[in-house]
Structure formats: C-alpha cells, structure tokens
UniProtKB/TrEMBL annotation:
<dbReference type="GO" id="GO:0032259">
    <property type="term" value="P:methylation"/>
</dbReference>
<keyword id="KW-0474">Menaquinone biosynthesis</keyword>
<dbReference type="InterPro" id="IPR004033">
    <property type="entry name" value="UbiE/COQ5_MeTrFase"/>
</dbReference>
<feature type="binding site">
    <location>
        <position position="85"/>
    </location>
    <ligand>
        <name>S-adenosyl-L-methionine</name>
    </ligand>
</feature>
<feature type="binding site">
    <location>
        <begin position="113"/>
        <end position="114"/>
    </location>
    <ligand>
        <name>S-adenosyl-L-methionine</name>
    </ligand>
</feature>
<comment type="similarity">
    <text>Belongs to the class I-like SAM-binding methyltransferase superfamily. MenG/UbiE family.</text>
</comment>
<keyword id="KW-0489">Methyltransferase</keyword>
<keyword id="KW-0949">S-adenosyl-L-methionine</keyword>
<dbReference type="InterPro" id="IPR029063">
    <property type="entry name" value="SAM-dependent_MTases_sf"/>
</dbReference>
<comment type="function">
    <text>Methyltransferase required for the conversion of demethylmenaquinol (DMKH2) to menaquinol (MKH2).</text>
</comment>
<dbReference type="GO" id="GO:0008425">
    <property type="term" value="F:2-methoxy-6-polyprenyl-1,4-benzoquinol methyltransferase activity"/>
</dbReference>
<comment type="pathway">
    <text>Quinol/quinone metabolism; menaquinone biosynthesis; menaquinol from 1,4-dihydroxy-2-naphthoate: step 2/2.</text>
</comment>
<keyword id="KW-0808">Transferase</keyword>
<feature type="binding site">
    <location>
        <position position="66"/>
    </location>
    <ligand>
        <name>S-adenosyl-L-methionine</name>
    </ligand>
</feature>
<protein>
    <recommendedName>
        <fullName>Demethylmenaquinone methyltransferase</fullName>
        <ecNumber>2.1.1.163</ecNumber>
    </recommendedName>
</protein>
<dbReference type="GO" id="GO:0043770">
    <property type="term" value="F:demethylmenaquinone methyltransferase activity"/>
</dbReference>
<dbReference type="InterPro" id="IPR023576">
    <property type="entry name" value="UbiE/COQ5_MeTrFase_CS"/>
</dbReference>
Length: 240
C-alpha cells in the first residue's frame, strides 16, 4: 500500500500530495532550511555541480515546488529552465520568488504531472528533481517520463532523502525524524500530517542500490549514486 499523507481520506496519493503541499506552501521554504539546519542548500549546490560539465541549455526541473533547485541551476547558465509541479500553492510561492529576483525571463513555472509530462520526446538537455521522486504515485512511470523527454546523451539528476545505515547516525536520524521533525513541522505548518508523512515516505522509498536498479530498468545508463551527509540524502545521476 502506498504511503499517503492523509490516511483518513480515500483520495489517491497524487491528489493527497498536491493537497499537502498546497497546505504548507507558505511555510515550506522556512521549514526546509530550519529542519535541515541549512544542509539542504549544500545538497542542492552539490547536485547542480554534477551537471556543470554537461553545460545544459534546456533544463526541466520536476517537482520544482518553490523553485529553489531551479534557481540554483541558473549557475550553469542555461538558456531556459522549466519547472513543473502538481501543487498550485507551491508554484504560486515560486512565481513570487522569481518576480522578486527578476528571473521570470530565465525560469518558467507551470502545472505539470511528473507521470504525464506535457512535453515532447527528446526535449531537454538535463532533468533535475529534488526531494520529489519519493512523492511519485508510480515511481517507474515517473522515471520513464523523465527518460522520454530527455534528449539522447542528456543527464538526469535526482536528489532524494535516503536512510543512514551506520551507528550512531542511523539511530540519531530515526529519533529526529520520528520524534522531533513531525512535532516542529506540525506546529509551524499547521498541517498535522505533512511532517509525519515525510519520515514514513522516506522509510518506504527504495533508496541506494534499489533506486539505481529501477533507474536502469526504465532506460538510464551510466548511473551513479552519491551518498551525502552520512547517508541522510543521496544524489543519483543517469544518462539517456
């Protein structure tokens, strides 16, 4: 059974995830940086640096949220970045951010379903997704869509939470994720489920070698797995 934010509702995972992010959109950036002590910013910079040798000109950022990853990717000097997300609330926050930073000519944000991307085959030089694949209703379908819209020779970069496996980080991580993060997240976001769903979805996600196997199954080649911060998160790369 798929892990969903609102267990008392009958909506599918995709609908529930969209509702959840709509509910927490105005607090999302603050909680992201606060609950990770800013390490998420370092992770994004590392993920973008892996794309630097490719010099991509057309970039797609899936599950773009409030556009933090898309904005970081501007360091690569692409011609255009398109960010897609299923949460209109997150996109609204992202659009305000782009207007304030004067970046609307470089980054376009639009509603888009990761499992049914509104783009033709072989469109983008690079695809990025940060902390989004864990929320896909159908992981294989979402990754297959990424492969479809990527140009031959293009690169996909996936940044996602993973599970530390070594003592004492494993124990510290589990305590923080299960006891501290949900309480703080609930108080700040006012959403009872959002930050309970986060550790549950991380626990259920096929990380590490398991993710690489699925990545390759849908057609990605030259795959690599980079473990970050004692295994708390990982970056996966693959080529079409």
């Amino acid at each position: 059974m798929a892990v969903v934010p609102y267990k008392d509702q009958n909506d599918d995972k995709k609908s529930q995830v969209a509702t959840m992010f709509n509910n927490i959109a105005d607090k999302y950036d603050f909680l992201n940086h606060f609950l990770s002590a800013g390490i998420d910013i370092i992770w994004r910079k590392k993920a973008v640096s892996l794309l630097a040798p490719e010099k991509p000109k057309q970039v797609l950022d899936i599950a773009t949220g409030t556009a933090d990853f898309a904005i970081e990717t501007l360091r690569l000097n692409p011609d255009k970045i398109v960010g897609v997300d299923i949460s209109e609330g997150m996109l609204a926050v992202g659009r305000e951010k782009l207007i304030k930073k004067g970046l609307t000519n470089k980054i376009e944000l639009k509603y888009g379903d990761s499992e049914n991307l509104p783009f033709g085959d072989n469109t983008f030089d690079a695809i990025t997704v940060a902390f989004g694949v864990r929320n896909f209703e159908n992981l294989k379908k979402g990754l297959s869509e990424m492969n479809r819209v990527l140009k031959p020779g293009g690169t996909a970069v996936v940044l996602e939470f993973s599970k530390p496996r070594s003592f004492p980080m494993k124990q510290l991580y589990q305590f923080y994720f299960k006891n501290i993060l949900p309480v703080v997240g609930k108080i700040v976001s006012k959403d009872n489920a959002a930050y309970t769903y986060l550790p549950e979805s991380v626990q259920a996600f096929p990380d590490g070698k398991d993710f690489i196997s699925i990545f390759e199954e849908v057609g990605f080649k030259n795959t690599k797995w980079h473990s970050l911060t004692f295994g708390i998160s990982s970056i996966y790369t693959g080529k079409k």
